[in-house]
Design goal:
Length: 96
């Protein structure tokens, strides 16, 4: 499992990549998919995260208002946006 505390902390500075909220509740929401390393009691790798506010994270994890396909699509879109935001804001970068 890949873990990176600094990466998770950097995501807290990001707006929610689903609804755009900047309300102080944004956290790194880990993928809930088995293909990303999720297991019973095990979070996916820290590079498989999406910056989501408390409401969007709750909606995603509880899933009562969305079908599984909708939850996967929501998370995947937010994940792509999160990685882009992290690079664009130099929270992560490639070093030579």
């Amino acid at each position: 499992m890949y873990r990176n505390k600094k990466l998770l902390e950097a995501v807290r500075e990001c707006p929610c990549q689903h609804c755009g909220a900047q309300d102080g509740t944004v956290v790194a929401a880990h993928s809930n998919q088995l293909r990303d390393g999720k297991g019973r009691g095990i979070k996916a790798n820290d590079y498989r995260i999406a910056a989501l506010c408390h409401k969007c994270h709750f909606d995603l994890d509880q899933g009562a208002s969305m079908a599984k396909f909708e939850r996967v699509t929501m998370w995947e879109e937010a994940h792509r946006k999160t990685i882009g935001w992290l690079f664009e804001n130099e929270k992560i970068r490639v070093v030579d």
